[in-house]
Specification:
homotetramer, 2 domains, alpha/beta, Rossmann fold, Dihydrodipicolinate Reductase, domain 2, Inositol 2-dehydrogenase (chains A, B, C, D), 24% strand, globular, nucleotide binding (chains A, B, C, D), 14 helices
Chain lengths: 347, 347, 347, 347
Amino acid sequence: MERVKIGVIGAGRIGKIHIDNLLRLPQVEVAAIGDLFAGPELLAWAAQRGIHSVTQDASAVINHPDIAAIYICSSTDTHVPLITRAAQAGKHIFCEKPVSMDIAQTEEALQAVRRAGVQLQVGFNRRFDHNFKRVREHVLAGAIGEPHIVKITSRDPNPPHNDYIRASGGIFMDMMIHDFDIARYVCGSEVEEVYAQGGVLIDPVFAEHGDIDTAVVTLRFSNGALGVIDNSRRAVYGYDQRVEVFGTKGSVSIANDHPNTAELSTAEGIVREKPLYFFLERYSEAYMEETRIFVDCLVSGKPVPVDGGDGLQAERIASAAKLSHRLGRPVKLAEIGAQLEQASAGE
Amino acid sequence: MERVKIGVIGAGRIGKIHIDNLLRLPQVEVAAIGDLFAGPELLAWAAQRGIHSVTQDASAVINHPDIAAIYICSSTDTHVPLITRAAQAGKHIFCEKPVSMDIAQTEEALQAVRRAGVQLQVGFNRRFDHNFKRVREHVLAGAIGEPHIVKITSRDPNPPHNDYIRASGGIFMDMMIHDFDIARYVCGSEVEEVYAQGGVLIDPVFAEHGDIDTAVVTLRFSNGALGVIDNSRRAVYGYDQRVEVFGTKGSVSIANDHPNTAELSTAEGIVREKPLYFFLERYSEAYMEETRIFVDCLVSGKPVPVDGGDGLQAERIASAAKLSHRLGRPVKLAEIGAQLEQASAGE
Amino acid sequence: MERVKIGVIGAGRIGKIHIDNLLRLPQVEVAAIGDLFAGPELLAWAAQRGIHSVTQDASAVINHPDIAAIYICSSTDTHVPLITRAAQAGKHIFCEKPVSMDIAQTEEALQAVRRAGVQLQVGFNRRFDHNFKRVREHVLAGAIGEPHIVKITSRDPNPPHNDYIRASGGIFMDMMIHDFDIARYVCGSEVEEVYAQGGVLIDPVFAEHGDIDTAVVTLRFSNGALGVIDNSRRAVYGYDQRVEVFGTKGSVSIANDHPNTAELSTAEGIVREKPLYFFLERYSEAYMEETRIFVDCLVSGKPVPVDGGDGLQAERIASAAKLSHRLGRPVKLAEIGAQLEQASAGE
Amino acid sequence: MERVKIGVIGAGRIGKIHIDNLLRLPQVEVAAIGDLFAGPELLAWAAQRGIHSVTQDASAVINHPDIAAIYICSSTDTHVPLITRAAQAGKHIFCEKPVSMDIAQTEEALQAVRRAGVQLQVGFNRRFDHNFKRVREHVLAGAIGEPHIVKITSRDPNPPHNDYIRASGGIFMDMMIHDFDIARYVCGSEVEEVYAQGGVLIDPVFAEHGDIDTAVVTLRFSNGALGVIDNSRRAVYGYDQRVEVFGTKGSVSIANDHPNTAELSTAEGIVREKPLYFFLERYSEAYMEETRIFVDCLVSGKPVPVDGGDGLQAERIASAAKLSHRLGRPVKLAEIGAQLEQASAGE
């Protein structure tokens, strides 16, 4: 069996996770790593894994004749040009979320993908998680009937550092974008209207960046269902990732994953451990799974399960939420982008 | 020990529950029952309990010289006149929720209460429930730090019948009013702004009455916290009553009560029973407790724990939610009542 | 409706519970209380409840011509003579467990009951508990198929005081006797063999009384099922009352009841409260229910659900466990009582 | 870094798992596979993994000069000779459980290991499981004080096939041996006495092999604690793996692992999924972890965490249980082996 050759651009924390996962697939070869800051440390790290082609030049990876697909794990601002170039080079693409923070640019990238006829999978890893998948399966199987209410709780254990916040695109585009995607995924319907409330309740640093750290967003889906998402940048008990879908025939909900099932009963109470700490612990299997499936699609030619359209739609909802929060009123998805530009103009 | 004599007006389902609970208190005598539709059946029911004064005339109960307090359990439209007359007669009052569906009328009733210097407890029974109380205690004790997000789920197992819907005042005033009260109770802060979404997803009969059957309402509290309440008129798995308060130091949440803890593991899965069916089962102890405490306050002269002001505040939030739903925009509590009247005028 | 008149002998803690429960039944009148130590305090307590006949003379209660049934709640050593006299007086009997600590005497009492044709219900309150009942129902309904393994955990929050231990009859006759009854009840089969292990692990005071404080007993049922019961006199986290029945089609298990469902998530972990403290809290509804059903049987003439034979059988298992522990080998139920006497002889 | 070369003998189901886990460790090279039945299929399977040395001759693996350690995953009857030869060849050894079914032979193997000064780790994989480890940690940390009662439930989803049963050594040596090891592990004390009850309740085929399919075994530990283990060869709801340790300061217990946390609430009840199906699913991470730690010990020279003495002790308890079941009385560990031989003689 000839192995699929894959190049990875951006070998930071998430890039390295993807590389290690790719290495566990016998049908894959990680043929090259491109990272702007590649140095001795990365070279050594790669060599340990039998990867000897490491470069600072993304073009060398993209244009490598043997490489069939590119993982784009570099900073968000580089996604659109890299997608565009990779598509033009005829490579399939896996891109971390979000594609970009600008609807128009994202659309531009998707057009390049369409024109080139390549595949683009967006890194909405939660869709590949055992719990979220099970919710979706139950909804699709009709176990809860028609969905009426979708509730998503998504809270991080700790705020990101200052630099991250500044470049993050804000809570809606950086953090809640996962939940917007999950909302569509578990409800099986498109979001039509958004109302966003939020505040700076944890750390004033968010205000300095024009961002917020706590948000509650309600959704109206095209099938009539209502939704609500709550986000917090700091849940001291750990990463809180829960979903509930309620419908005509019942409800399906998922609880958090815990490091073990041990329960300690003492004179003080009954105690179990906090949830798995953060996304690396919580979604380690989901990251593996999304890569396994991406590679399966490459090999078989089947369409990828989360494509550029899904990436775009989540970004549109995030933009609507951002606008709603600024204007203090519900915003229809139909208002994005015209309204967006107008709104930007008034800023 | 002289027993406190109490009169009960309205001996329907909820009135009978209050009577049976009053009879379990050794320091109480149920001295008279007034019910517009009193007939042989009610006379027999009362006689079995040693109550021999049953009348169709509420005034006879209110003006009974030995009676110290009146339970008002008749239909909502009678609450304000009965409160007013009972107050004028110098009786303490326990009144079922809501006091009325009109802020101005409720204020009028409260004024009568204040003028008479009597006590008025409003029947927000959930405050006396073991679970909700525990949430409140944890929040007050600072166990979760400053509250940031309040989430309330409240779903009935089945819609009420047609006649009930017509006179109910709508989902916000009839059903979610309990949740508005609980929101204030567990957050320890006042609601300042409301945004209400809703739809008719269960039964078109709600639309016929200008009502909805499914609603998601977001709240903004004066301490900066955000809140969300979801209501459904039909959860096929039973009465769903959950609350979560999330804050700087953690989160406290309550799950539903179940008829037993039995778990059946078979080849099909792990099954436990649905929650307690409806409010009579779920809150039977809370009804007892609210009456026990009301009587304690009567005897000791201590102020009742849920007074007319609490009743009024919940009604104001319900009115704001109703208005928000009609206007499709967030409504500040400060807009109620001026806006309310204006809005009504425009209807 | 004429009310059933009931006399209560022994108005200690458990007697008072039965009296208060009897008072909640409209078809019952507590006509007299007999207590060896009746004094002003008991008189006042009874008067508050409208009971004005309080005596130190049990005979006066037993022979009271209007009284139809006697509750025997006095110390265990008085049970057999009181049952005998009450039966001879033609009264139905509710007797606290155990009937006695001596199989021969218990059989004597049961003979008196049979001869008199009265009913005798033994106070195995757990059979009326919502959880244990549900286990039994599932087993009877065939939900778990043929039972193979029965597991019972039963631990007290705190050891009884010294005087109680001395007169208790030991852990098997005083505490585990409930579990022996539940084992028969949930398995639907008789115990044929017992092996008892135990030790003094909590407090040497148990050794002083020839007793133990921790025990693990295995059972063999006549249907081939195996069982195990563990008892401890001190579980610092509270009253631990669990059962599991495992069979060909699955398993049914019950968890403890808790005062509320609140769960507190903090940086330290996820905490919920300890189980309900002890039998008074845990089984308050079960006590009510056993009395309600006893009275129903009196009124309807139906046979009581836990009769003298059940009391005897549990005592026989307890005796076998005691013997097994002394001899360090499994003991067949068939060995009780010949073996018992022989063993006693050798002591 | 030079990689540790490891040879694997026996490439059946469990051998393949160990090979795949070894391949995930960058510091390891699987240098050779020895399997009596090695054929084209195994050659292809190995080649896919880059292993090109596959032989039917175990000696070639054992005597391979570059190989530092041997995994023995062949049938139980080959363990003792292979351990002996591997030890004589100066190789470190990982051996699947049990070392053998005969105490004397196991002792012989351990002596060879001691003489050669090599390490021997026995495959008690559950010690490396997240749940069991946590129980142990809590007990060691004193969180539950002095252990008083240890309860272990261990039930397989389905009986093994006929051939397996015949050669298995019986339920105590094949299945409960894991629980005997866990009992020592979580209690932190040695077993001194065993009483075993059991029966053929699932399938008469067990009786044909002189085996049983359901067993309840009680233990007495040298620290005074009592224990109980229940085993069933068929739990229709899946692999049931639970432990509870109860002591002076409380209790720690573990529940089963489930494939996800989804809970479905419908008109029929609240349902979640069955536990992970069997040991391959349930302990996949534990298998990885035991290999990771074995290799760490090889590299660092630290002693392995589960050595031959642990293997021997579990076998001694299994032998005692077997004997107890045959004799129908408790058996002290001190009786094994003299008694064993005597008992065997009488068979």
